[in-house]
Structure formats: structure tokens, C-alpha cells
């Protein structure tokens, strides 16, 4: 009576049975390594340290203190329960007005109050993930394309393309000019699309950049605006790392550029925002679509029905972000702590001859390990990466997963751990780099390529690991999606 | 306009339908028992406001759940960082237990087969993305929830083909209706991927019979297609015994993981109706098919449930005392309130479909129509909105094939407001139609656009010309 798998597959959509979700890439081996052997400072000091997760854990103490002192921000405490019913019932996709006002206020302050945001243009979404998908649904039809400068966040392929049928076309950037986006590269990518008969609907930029950690300078931003204006295509600016900029040059938002003396059809300008990085609240799913185009606001708002922010969370965030004292203190402290962490990290690495792209924002560094590659190929990058995961016991993200055109770059996150863990990570890197003065050669028996983690690798550390009990990460009681956290 | 997508420029979002226009009118002039006693009373909103006291008192006794604490320790950071699309295990466990409890524990659910989504809105859309390609179709019995036109069709590109149900048998699904719908789809060159039913039904306010469920299962078995059972109103059935979940019938038919049809049955759930928490955006997909669970889980990235909310509800739903008491009290109060609405309608000479669930009644006002047409239904609806000042939902917005039916909600307003609404309705009917009042005396009859009646409380304006007396129905 059984039916074949292919029968069952035919009964599901192409979307469900295909690979558009992007989670089958070998890139996730690092995650599997971490999940099966997660570092813990006392319980598993030899475990894999998670450095592939762009999370911001630097300022929870400030928030926790605030939450304790502001019980009315929660609708469940004695102080707030009188609002429980009204909040629980409220499902208007416009969102709580106080929520929108508070978010607009926060966004303005993060930009040093150089610009203000209109609360009526704040549209909710299921995190930035939902925001990107919504924007794609609003701006493009299946088969249309967005230009995206490389390297870029791997999740974009899923967020912008999976269910929408939209494709991403890379805009070439490389280390010769510190990965800056040039007009020439944009034109080349655009022309390539034209030749292939693909309709380009927009350009997607992330500023500050993931994975580079850099901000776009004024001239570049202006040239991007000029470009999209000439081509009559949209500009989507992912500014989710806006508050993670910790030193000069300061962050310039697209919101500031369009107020300058520059020719620009504002109907083409859209911002994606979220509280996941700046505040460290990925679990609360607070995504924002901010568009200067009224039709997009209206459409995105209707689509937000598919990913509204829980009103319980809206209420909490509204209280928090309208407390200007907290907001100012948070922004300042966050920048200060990120700066200290970044400086310690990059200085220590520099001392062992390892450089990172010069950056002043983000929750990570873009580490240059090209000199450790046996040959400048992506195969060699994979070999190096597997060594770092299994030998050095650090889960970092290889540049190829970000569509980087040059092998040898790695994104290494530093804001998701305490000082002690960071020091341990640094010492592991120091030891590793000192040990491998020669480039890493691929092993003949290629055992790295097996996803089975029980490598019979001749190293003391590996033996230790084999002996220690298998522990799941405290964040991961059951196998969790790497892609959810690969941000 | 070519700058935006087709999704953005056409109105396939469905929000121009009358269903939403009534809302807009209400927003402009909402009733308030103190500040605006002449305003429009909202009876078009299927909300459950009857049992908040139970939740509020639980909250008062359980401060930890609220204050980001577990066993006295702060877990704020842990929660704020938790974005695993598999969901908080404790929450999923509590939720499946709650779902089982609502079904009198006649069936159980495996938390590993549950996918959390941002409300049933997202659950339904996600399921369709998983089961159907653009251009394919699902069959849905009419009348159905107007939001399906958006949730199931808009961004998915999937079509809905109606299964016509009529008042002749209480709008139950029949075999000929199923076959006819399937053939209609074939005629239109649409490949049917599944049937989607809402049980208990919105807008009918009835639970599906065992017969109907068996019929459906046989049908989807025969055609080799999916069955989606939207059971978001399961906790609003006035008695647990009267609600039969499709999962129960599968069990009765001895269907298990070895049967083909087992993997093609999917359930959608939410806490918006049963618990009255629509703002919290808690929806779920339950599927026996691992591939569907896997795909839907990945798609849930676009609409996860806030970890803050998962934590709160995990604590709430794990409290078996609360859930037991809540389920029973909820059923009791809903039943009582429905009775009140039904009797109020009767006093106005209006009957409704005999209902045993839901937050609304399916009301028959066909005898008040000028003619047996949807134009007449619209005219009547507009009078009810603008003159009687009640926002109710016309059957046409629910794709009902027979004019004259309206969905009237009863659980989102106080008893006093419900009484007032019924008084207004009674007065309206008495003024306009040849309907005997409680003393048996007929009230005024003929309608003419030149005639105005002024009353102590109400001033009616005729909105159309030249009417003939209402034919008897």
C-alpha cells in the first residue's frame, strides 16, 4: 500500500520540496559541530566556541535593570495587568501607536537626531527576515531581480527569493579597494542582467555592512542614489546594524542622504530595520519596513498581517524606547563596549600577524586569512575552515557563504560572548596562527569532508573531545536551524 | 504602475470587500456606553472577550511568568536571544496538551509535529505555500471566512474554488457539492491540491458532523489530495463532546502513519479565538507529514512567535488547573451568551442557523430582503450599518450563495450592549416591516421614499426609491 517518496513530493509544492530555503549548503557543518560540542566555560571548556552568530549580548545588564524598575512595561505584572485585556485584544496591523512612536524615536536617536522618522511609515514585520521578504513581494514579481553587493548575508537568498521567486544578482566588490561598491561594478551587474533579459527592480545594500562591519561613506551613498534614480529602480537599505557603529567615520543613513541636495525620487527609497542587532532582541521578532513610498507602506502594512509583532512585545518596546534616558544611555554604552571588544580583538590578532578589514561597526570582524591558504581557491578555504572548526574549535563563517569572490576571508563574531570566553577564543587563535606558519594543505584522505564528526584526527584535543559527554548548547535543546542563527 | 509588484498593485489582498468596509464605518463612529451611545455597535468582530477575568486572576497569582523570571532567576537575556524556529519546547508541549484537552483527550498531538507561526493568518498562508504551486487550487465550502481570500490566495497565487453549501440542509457539506466543486476546478484547468474546512465553522457557528468528516476523508483519499482542518474555534464548541476533530475521525477509521491519507491531513490552530489573545499572534500548523513540518518550520522564519509571548503562554498553559477551568468556563459563558443573542433575534422576528460553537450566529434575514438578490442584501446591510448602527457581516462577503444571511458576533461586547443592539434591531424591523410585535399588533407597513417618520429615539432615512411591500419568505 506504500507510495514512493516522489509521489508524496508531487503532492507538496515545489517550494516545499526544493532547496530555496538555502539550508542544505555545506556551510552548516560548522553549526553541527557547535551544536554537538558547545563551549561552556566550566562545563565544557574544550568545546566549540560560537563565533558564527551575530548576536549582541553586550548590554543586557542595562535592559534587565530597566525591566526590573519598570514593571508596568509588562502587561502581566501587578503594575501592568490592568492593560492586559486591551493589549491582548489589539490586532490592528497599524500597530500600537505608542509602539510606532517609540520605534521612530529610537531610530532618530540612533542617527544622532540628524533625521526624524514618521511613525505612520513604520510598518511591522516578522523580524528583518519578514521585512525583506515583504519588501520583495511589494516591489518585484517572480523572475525579477535585485542587485546585491558581495559579500552579503547568506539569508538574503532565502528572505528575498525563496517564496517570492525573485533572484539576486551579485555586484562585484573585492579587497583591492576594501570591498567598496563602485559605480562601475553596479553598471556591470545591471548590464549583465539586461543581457540575460532579467528585469532589475532594485538594489539592496546593508549599511553598516554584514559581514564587513564597515559603513558607507557619503560619496558612495550619493552615487548609489544617483544610480538607482537614473535606472528608475528601488533602493532597499538594510540598516539593522545602525546602532552598532562605535567609532568614526559615523554612520550615515539613507534617510539623511535624501534630505541633502540630491535628485532622488523618494518613492524608490525603503529602509529595513529591526531590534535584533542594535538591542540584542532577536527573540522578540521586531522587524520594521520603513518606506518613503505610500503605496509600499500600504501594501506592506496589509502584508504585515502575516508577521505582526506580538502586542505584548509592542507594549514592552513602546515603554522601553520612549524612555529617552534609557535609550541615550544604551546607545552610548553599547557603542563603548563594542568598541572596547573590537579593539581588544583586532589588536590581539594584529600581534600575531592576522589582520582584519578596517571596520567600525557590526558585531563581527572580517578576518583576512588568505596567507594561510595553500592556494587561493575556495576548496582551500573550506579546508582551512574545517581546521578552524575541528582543531581550533571555533565556529566562524567562511567568506564563501557570504558570496565573497575572494577566498580566505572569514567573518568572526565577538559580541555574543563574555570577556572570559573572548580571551579563550583569542588564545586559541593565537596558538593556531603561531602553529601554522605554513599554509594549510588539504589532507590526502579528506576525512574533513565527512559530516560525521567522529574524526580520527591525531590531536590531543580531539581525544579529549571524544571522551567528554556530548552536550547540546544551552540555546539548543533540540537541533535548531543553523540558518535562523546564521545572521 | 510598473514600479511595484503585481501583488502590490491589484487588490487581491481582498481588503476592499464589504467585510472590511463595515469596519471602516465602525471606526468612524464607534459605540461607547458612556461617550457615544448612538455610535455603531461592533458585531462584526469575532473576538472572545468573555473570560479575561480568568486570565487576569491567574496573572495576579503568577508574577514570575510575567517578569521574565523562571524559578526566581532572570531569564530576560535568554528569552531575548531565543529565535530558534523550532520554538520554545516547553511552550509547544503545553500547547499540544491544551489542544488535546480541548478535544477531551480523545487524540494526542506530538510537539515535534507542531510548527509555530504568527497567528492562524500566517499558518494558513504557510500551509498553502507548502502544499500548492501558483495556479493550483484548494476547495473551500461556502460560506467561509473572508480573510481566506487574502491568506490563501494573495501572495501564493493559489486559487479558491468554492464547495457550495445551502440552507436546505443547514449548510452541511455533501458529496455532490464536493464533486461539483472538483469538476468546476477541472473545467477551469486548475489542479486541485486540497480541501480546506473550518471546524467549528466560521461563519456558521456549528461543528462538523462525523458524517461530514468521513465524507471529506473519503473524498481526499479518493482524489489523493490534502485536507486542511482549520480548528481555531475548537475551544468555542459549547461542549467538548460536540466537537469532533478530524484527527479523531482519522483514528476511528484506523488511519495511522501507514495510511496514505494520514500524511495529507493538517490542522491549523491559534489562541486568538479560544483564549481571546489575537494580539499575541500565536498560531500553529500541525501536520503528520515530516516534509511539511520541515518546510513549514523554515517558512515560519518569516513570522515567528515572540519568545516573550511563548514564555508567558508556556507558563499559563502548563497550569492544568487553569486550562481545565478555563475550557469549561469559556464553553459555559459562550453558550449562555449565544442563547441571549438568539432570543433577542427571535424577539425581532429573526431566526438563525442552530449553532453550537463559535463566537457568532449565522442569522437569517432573508425575509427582510426587498428581493432575493445580493443587491437587496447589500441594501439591507447598509441600513443595518448606517441606520440601525450595528456592524454585522453580510453573507456575500463570506461567499454565501444565498442572499439574506448575516454573521452576528456575540462575544466581543458586554451583555448590556448586546441588549441594546437587539432593541435597536427590533425597533428597526418593527418600523420597516409588517412584523407583529410582542403584543401581536402589526406595525406600520408601506415604504415610500417620500415618507419620513420621526420617533423619540430614532430618525430613519430611506436610502432608495420606490419600494413594494416585502414579500413573505
From TrEMBL, chain A:
<feature type="domain" description="Aminotransferase class I/classII large">
    <location>
        <begin position="49"/>
        <end position="429"/>
    </location>
</feature>
<dbReference type="GO" id="GO:0009693">
    <property type="term" value="P:ethylene biosynthetic process"/>
</dbReference>
<dbReference type="GO" id="GO:0030170">
    <property type="term" value="F:pyridoxal phosphate binding"/>
</dbReference>
<dbReference type="InterPro" id="IPR015421">
    <property type="entry name" value="PyrdxlP-dep_Trfase_major"/>
</dbReference>
<keyword id="KW-0292">Fruit ripening</keyword>
<dbReference type="Pfam" id="PF00155">
    <property type="entry name" value="Aminotran_1_2"/>
</dbReference>
<dbReference type="InterPro" id="IPR015422">
    <property type="entry name" value="PyrdxlP-dep_Trfase_small"/>
</dbReference>
<comment type="similarity">
    <text>Belongs to the class-I pyridoxal-phosphate-dependent aminotransferase family.</text>
</comment>
<dbReference type="InterPro" id="IPR015424">
    <property type="entry name" value="PyrdxlP-dep_Trfase"/>
</dbReference>
<dbReference type="InterPro" id="IPR004839">
    <property type="entry name" value="Aminotransferase_I/II_large"/>
</dbReference>
<dbReference type="GO" id="GO:0008483">
    <property type="term" value="F:transaminase activity"/>
</dbReference>
<keyword id="KW-0266">Ethylene biosynthesis</keyword>
<dbReference type="InterPro" id="IPR050478">
    <property type="entry name" value="Ethylene_sulfur-biosynth"/>
</dbReference>
<comment type="pathway">
    <text>Alkene biosynthesis; ethylene biosynthesis via S-adenosyl-L-methionine; ethylene from S-adenosyl-L-methionine: step 1/2.</text>
</comment>
<comment type="subunit">
    <text>Homodimer.</text>
</comment>
<keyword id="KW-0663">Pyridoxal phosphate</keyword>
<dbReference type="InterPro" id="IPR004838">
    <property type="entry name" value="NHTrfase_class1_PyrdxlP-BS"/>
</dbReference>
<dbReference type="GO" id="GO:0009835">
    <property type="term" value="P:fruit ripening"/>
</dbReference>
<dbReference type="GO" id="GO:0016847">
    <property type="term" value="F:1-aminocyclopropane-1-carboxylate synthase activity"/>
</dbReference>
<keyword id="KW-0456">Lyase</keyword>
<keyword id="KW-0949">S-adenosyl-L-methionine</keyword>
<protein>
    <recommendedName>
        <fullName>1-aminocyclopropane-1-carboxylate synthase</fullName>
        <ecNumber>4.4.1.14</ecNumber>
    </recommendedName>
</protein>
TrEMBL record, chain B:
<keyword id="KW-0663">Pyridoxal phosphate</keyword>
<keyword id="KW-0949">S-adenosyl-L-methionine</keyword>
<dbReference type="GO" id="GO:0030170">
    <property type="term" value="F:pyridoxal phosphate binding"/>
</dbReference>
<comment type="pathway">
    <text>Alkene biosynthesis; ethylene biosynthesis via S-adenosyl-L-methionine; ethylene from S-adenosyl-L-methionine: step 1/2.</text>
</comment>
<comment type="similarity">
    <text>Belongs to the class-I pyridoxal-phosphate-dependent aminotransferase family.</text>
</comment>
<protein>
    <recommendedName>
        <fullName>1-aminocyclopropane-1-carboxylate synthase</fullName>
        <ecNumber>4.4.1.14</ecNumber>
    </recommendedName>
</protein>
<comment type="subunit">
    <text>Homodimer.</text>
</comment>
<dbReference type="GO" id="GO:0016847">
    <property type="term" value="F:1-aminocyclopropane-1-carboxylate synthase activity"/>
</dbReference>
<dbReference type="InterPro" id="IPR015421">
    <property type="entry name" value="PyrdxlP-dep_Trfase_major"/>
</dbReference>
<dbReference type="Pfam" id="PF00155">
    <property type="entry name" value="Aminotran_1_2"/>
</dbReference>
<dbReference type="InterPro" id="IPR015424">
    <property type="entry name" value="PyrdxlP-dep_Trfase"/>
</dbReference>
<dbReference type="GO" id="GO:0009693">
    <property type="term" value="P:ethylene biosynthetic process"/>
</dbReference>
<keyword id="KW-0292">Fruit ripening</keyword>
<dbReference type="InterPro" id="IPR004839">
    <property type="entry name" value="Aminotransferase_I/II_large"/>
</dbReference>
<keyword id="KW-0266">Ethylene biosynthesis</keyword>
<dbReference type="InterPro" id="IPR015422">
    <property type="entry name" value="PyrdxlP-dep_Trfase_small"/>
</dbReference>
<dbReference type="GO" id="GO:0009835">
    <property type="term" value="P:fruit ripening"/>
</dbReference>
<keyword id="KW-0456">Lyase</keyword>
<dbReference type="InterPro" id="IPR004838">
    <property type="entry name" value="NHTrfase_class1_PyrdxlP-BS"/>
</dbReference>
<dbReference type="InterPro" id="IPR050478">
    <property type="entry name" value="Ethylene_sulfur-biosynth"/>
</dbReference>
<dbReference type="GO" id="GO:0008483">
    <property type="term" value="F:transaminase activity"/>
</dbReference>
<feature type="domain" description="Aminotransferase class I/classII large">
    <location>
        <begin position="41"/>
        <end position="425"/>
    </location>
</feature>
Amino acid at each position: 500500500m506504500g507510495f514512493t517518496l516522489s509521489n508524496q513530493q508531487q503532492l507538496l509544492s515545489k517550494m516545499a520540496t526544493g532547496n530555496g530555503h538555502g539550508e542544505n549548503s555545506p556551510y552548516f557543518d560548522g553549526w553541527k559541530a557547535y551544536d554537538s560540542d558547545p563551549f561552556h566555560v566550566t562545563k565544557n571548556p574544550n568545546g566549540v566556541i560560537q563565533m558564527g552568530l551575530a548576536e549582541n549580548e553586550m548590554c543586557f545588564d542595562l535592559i534587565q535593570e530597566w525591566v526590573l524598575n519598570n514593571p508596568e512595561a509588562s502587561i502581566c505584572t501587578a503594575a501592568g495587568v490592568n492593560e492586559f485585556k486591551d493589549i491582548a485584544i489589539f490586532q490592528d496591523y497599524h500597530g500600537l501607536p505608542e509602539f510606532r512612536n517609540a520605534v521612530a524615536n529610537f531610530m532618530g536617536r540612533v542617527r544622532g537626531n540628524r533625521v526624524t522618522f514618521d511613525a505612520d511609515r513604520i510598518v511591522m514585520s516578522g523580524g528583518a527576515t519578514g521585512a525583506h521578504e515583504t519588501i520583495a513581494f511589494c516591489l518585484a514579481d517572480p523572475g525579477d531581480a535585485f542587485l546585491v553587493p558581495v559579500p552579503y548575508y547568506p539569508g538574503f537568498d532565502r528572505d528575498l527569493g525563496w517564496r517570492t521567486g525573485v533572484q539576486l544578482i551579485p555586484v562585484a566588490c573585492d579587497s583591492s579597494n576594501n570591498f567598496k561598491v563602485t559605480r562601475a561594478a553596479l553598471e556591470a551587474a545591471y548590464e549583465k542582467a539586461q543581457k540575460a533579459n532579467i528585469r532589475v527592480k532594485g538594489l539592496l545594500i546593508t549599511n553598516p555592512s554584514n559581514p564587513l562591519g564597515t559603513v558607507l561613506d557619503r560619496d558612495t551613498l550619493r552615487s548609489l542614489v544617483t544610480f538607482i534614480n537614473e535606472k528608475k529602480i528601488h533602493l532597499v537599505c538594510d540598516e539593522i546594524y545602525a546602532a552598532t557603529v562605535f567609532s568614526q567615520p559615523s554612520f550615515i543613513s539613507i534617510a539623511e542622504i535624501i534630505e541633502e541636495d540630491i535628485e532622488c525620487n523618494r518613492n524608490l527609497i525603503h529602509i529595513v530595520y529591526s531590534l535584533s542587532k542594535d538591542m540584542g532582541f532577536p527573540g522578540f521578532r521586531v522587524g520594521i519596513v520603513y518606506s518613503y513610498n505610500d503605496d509600499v507602506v500600504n501594501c506592506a502594512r496589509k502584508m504585515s498581517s502575516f508577521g505582526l509583532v506580538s502586542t505584548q512585545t509592542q507594549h514592552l518596546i513602546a515603554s522601553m524606547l520612549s524612555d529617552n534616558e534609557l535609550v541615550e544611555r544604551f546607545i552610548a554604552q553599547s557603542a563603548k563596549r563594542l568598541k572596547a571588544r573590537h579593539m581588544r580583538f583586532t589588536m590581539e590578532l594584529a600581534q600575531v600577524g592576522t589582520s582584519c578589514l578596517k571596520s567600525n561597526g557590526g558585531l563581527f570582524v572580517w578576518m583576512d586569512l588568505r596567507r594561510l591558504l595553500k592556494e587561493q581557491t575556495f576548496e582551500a578555504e573550506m579546508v582551512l575552515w574545517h581546521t578552524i572548526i575541528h582543531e581550533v574549535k571555533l565556529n566562524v563563517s567562511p567568506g564563501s557563504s557570504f558570496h565573497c569572490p575572494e577566498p580566505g576571508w572569514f567573518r568572526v563574531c565577538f559580541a555574543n560572548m563574555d570577556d572570559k570566553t573572548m580571551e579563550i577564543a583569542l588564545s586559541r587563535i593565537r596558538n593556531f596562527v603561531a602553529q601554522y606558519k605554513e599554509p594549510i594543505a588539504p589532507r590526502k584522505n579528506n576525512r574533513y569532508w565527512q559530516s560525521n564528526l567522529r574524526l580520527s584526527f591525531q590531536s590531543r584535543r580531539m581525544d579529549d573531545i571524544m571522551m567528554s559527554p556530548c552536550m547540546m548548547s544551552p540555546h539548543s535543546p533540540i537541533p535548531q536551524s543553523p540558518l535562523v542563527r546564521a545572521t | 504602475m510598473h514600479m511595484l509588484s503585481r501583488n502590490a498593485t491589484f487588490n487581491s489582498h481582498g481588503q476592499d470587500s464589504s467585510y472590511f468596509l463595515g469596519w471602516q464605518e465602525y471606526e468612524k463612529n464607534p459605540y461607547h456606553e458612556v461617550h457615544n451611545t448612538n455610535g455603531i455597535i461592533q458585531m462584526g468582530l469575532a473576538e472572545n472577550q468573555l473570560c479575561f477575568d480568568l486570565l487576569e486572576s491567574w496573572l495576579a497569582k503568577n508574577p514570575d511568568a510575567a517578569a521574565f523570571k523562571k524559578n526566581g532567576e532572570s531569564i530576560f537575556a535568554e528569552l531575548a536571544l531565543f529565535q530558534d524556529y523550532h520554538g520554545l519546547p516547553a511552550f509547544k508541549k503545553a500547547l499540544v496538551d491544551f489542544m488535546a484537552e480541548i478535544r477531551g483527550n480523545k487524540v494526542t498531538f506530538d510537539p515535534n509535529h507542531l510548527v509555530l507561526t504568527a497567528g492562524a493568518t500566517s499558518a494558513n498562508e504557510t500551509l498553502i505555500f507548502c502544499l500548492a504551486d501558483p495556479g493550483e487550487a484548494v476547495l473551500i465550502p461556502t460560506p467561509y471566512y473572508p480573510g481566506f481570500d487574502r491568506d490563501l490566495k494573495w501572495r501564493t497565487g493559489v486559487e479558491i474554488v468554492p464547495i457550495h453549501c445551502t440552507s436546505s440542509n443547514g449548510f452541511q457539506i455533501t458529496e455532490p457539492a464536493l464533486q461539483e466543486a472538483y469538476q468546476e476546478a477541472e473545467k477551469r484547468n486548475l489542479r486541485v491540491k486540497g480541501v480546506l474546512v473550518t471546524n467549528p465553522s466560521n461563519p456558521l457557528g456549528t461543528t462538523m458532523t462525523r458524517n461530514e468528516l468521513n465524507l471529506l476523508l473519503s473524498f481526499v483519499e479518493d482524489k489523493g489530495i490534502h485536507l486542511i482542518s482549520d480548528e481555531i474555534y475548537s475551544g468555542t464548541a459549547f461542549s467538548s463532546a460536540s466537537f469532533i476533530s478530524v484527527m479523531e475521525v482519522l483514528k476511528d477509521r484506523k488511519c495511522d502513519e501507514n495510511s496514505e491519507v494520514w500524511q495529507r491531513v493538517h490542522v491549523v490552530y491559534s489562541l486568538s479565538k479560544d483564549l481571546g489573545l489575537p494580539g499575541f499572534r500565536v498560531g500553529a500548523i500541525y501536520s503528520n507529514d515530516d516534509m511539511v513540518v520541515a518546510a513549514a518550520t523554515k517558512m515560519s522564519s518569516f513570522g515567528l512567535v515572540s519568545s516573550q509571548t511563548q514564555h508567558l503562554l508556556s507558563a499559563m498553559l502548563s497550569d492544568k488547573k487553569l486550562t481545565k477551568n478555563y475550557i469549561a468556563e469559556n464553553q459555559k459563558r459562550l453558550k449562555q451568551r449565544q442563547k441571549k443573542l438568539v432570543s433577542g433575534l427571535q424577539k425581532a422576528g429573526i431566526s438563525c442557523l442552530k449553532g453550537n460553537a463559535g463566537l457568532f450566529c449565522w442569522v437569517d434575514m432573508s425575509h427582510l430582503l426587498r428581493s432575493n438578490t445580493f443587491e437587496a442584501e447589500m441594501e439591507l446591510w447598509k441600513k443595518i450599518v448606517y441606520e440601525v448602527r450595528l456592524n454585522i457581516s453580510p453573507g456575500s462577503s463570506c461567499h454565501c450563495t444565498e442572499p439574506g444571511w448575516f454573521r452576528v458576533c456575540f462575544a466581543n461586547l458586554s451583555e448590556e450592549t448586546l441588549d441594546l443592539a437587539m432593541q435597536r434591531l427590533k425597533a428597526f424591523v418593527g418600523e420597516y416591516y409588517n412584523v407583529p410585535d410582542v403584543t401581536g399588533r402589526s406595525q406600520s407597513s408601506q415604504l415610500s421614499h417620500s415618507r419620513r417618520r420621526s420617533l423619540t429615539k430614532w430618525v430613519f432615512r430611506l436610502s432608495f426609491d420606490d419600494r413594494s411591500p416585502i414579500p413573505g419568505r
